[in-house]
């Protein structure tokens, strides 16, 4: 009995690690709520004659030229996202007309700048020290123009939020977001152990679970491209 039990614990721990997944939540997902008016559609692009001739581009594989996003010039505008997970990242744009924003994670506020001379998109901020068994609350508020910015209007621009749903919680999290990929894997019900066991035999899915497929409504925003000021 003891031998069997220990074996099972080791087995379960390994499975839990396997089941953690990085989930990319696009800016259009209905789980991101926006406050303030004047959120506009924009894409990531290099603007010849405005941007520096070299140095711009994607920072990592989370975005690429032409990617869609939402942007705002209004200080006080914010977006909010709640999730259960062990880490979270913001996929934003930085450029010469991007300003200061405050990131509040579970009530702890830090100020960051979106200013860079050349334009970039990608993960610009990550928090990796979260308790993966808890719900977390992320609020990002656009607060001010960057002091270095030569432009009158400054912006905050979101492509996506990424989070890691943490060891052992992937199943219940992904079931609600992407049912086709994670059948029968809720860990919170009475069949939890059986489901965990079942998980081992389910064909594994890709690491990044793009929730764009849910086809949720876009937040209220107009679609005219913004003119650099
Ligand atoms: C951006 O959105 C447009 C309109 O919905 C779509 O046609 C286009 O494929 C999107 N671009 C990317 C890179 O996803
Ligand atoms: C933004 O964060 C800074 C630094 O924590 C703080 O001093 C400031 O009051 C915050 N501004 C807003 C609008 O929340």
Q: Let me know the largest β-sheet.
A: 9 strands, mixed
Give the name of the CATH architecture of the domain at 20-165 and 209-216: Sandwich
Order of helices and strands: HEEEEEEEEEEEEHHEE
Our estimate of the beta-strand percent is 25-35%
Summed up, the helix count is 3
Radius of gyration: 20 Å
Write the CATH homologous superfamily of the domain at 20-165 and 209-216. Galactose-binding domain-like
Please provide the count of β strands: 14
| N-C termini distance | 72 Å
Structural class: alpha+beta
What is the global morphology?
Answer: globular
* CATH fold topology of the domain at 20-165 and 209-216: Jelly Rolls
Q: What is the name of the CATH class of the domain at 20-165 and 209-216?
A: Mainly Beta
Please mark out the parts with pLDDT under 50 across 5 or more consecutive residues, or reply none.
1-16, 169-229
Ligands bound here?
A: 2-acetamido-2-deoxy-beta-D-glucopyranose
What does this structure look like?
There is one protein chain. The protein has 229 residues and is of the alpha+beta class. The chain has a domain at 20-165 and 209-216: Jelly Rolls (Sandwich), CATH 2.60.120.260. The protein has 3 helices and 14 strands. It has helices at 2-19, 170-177, 192-201; strands at residues 22-26, 33-35, 39-43, 57-58, 68-72, 78-84, 87-94, 100-105, 108-113, 120-127, 135-144, 156-164, 208-210, 221-222. A hairpin with a 2-residue loop joins strand 8 (100-105) and strand 9. The relative contact order is 0.25. The structure holds 2-acetamido-2-deoxy-beta-D-glucopyranose (2 copies). Residues 66-68 line the site of one 2-acetamido-2-deoxy-beta-D-glucopyranose (NAG).
């Amino acid at each position: 009995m003891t031998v069997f039990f220990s074996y099972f614990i080791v087995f379960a721990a390994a499975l839990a690690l396997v089941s953690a997944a990085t989930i990319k939540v696009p800016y259009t997902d209905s789980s991101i709520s926006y406050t303030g008016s004047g959120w506009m559609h924009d894409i990531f692009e290099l603007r010849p004659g405005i941007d520096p001739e070299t140095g711009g581009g994607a920072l990592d594989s989370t975005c690429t030229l032409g990617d869609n996003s939402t942007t705002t010039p209004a200080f006080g505008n914010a977006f909010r996202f709640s999730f259960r997970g062990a880490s979270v990242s913001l996929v934003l744009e930085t450029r010469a007309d991007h300003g200061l924003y405050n990131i509040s994670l579970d009530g702890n506020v830090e100020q960051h700048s979106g200013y860079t001379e050349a334009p970039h998109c990608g993960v610009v901020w990550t928090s990796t020290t979260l308790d993966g068994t808890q719900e977390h609350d992320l609020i990002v508020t656009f607060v001010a123009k960057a002091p270095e910015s030569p432009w009158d209007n400054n912006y905050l621009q979101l492509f996506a939020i990424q989070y890691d749903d943490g060891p052992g919680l992937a199943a219940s999290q992904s079931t609600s977001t992407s049912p086709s990929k994670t059948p029968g894997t809720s860990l919170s019900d009475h069949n939890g152990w059986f489901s965990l066991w079942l998980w081992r035999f389910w064909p594994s899915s890709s690491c990044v679970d793009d929730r764009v497929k849910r086809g949720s409504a876009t937040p209220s925003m107009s679609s005219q491209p913004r003119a650099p000021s």
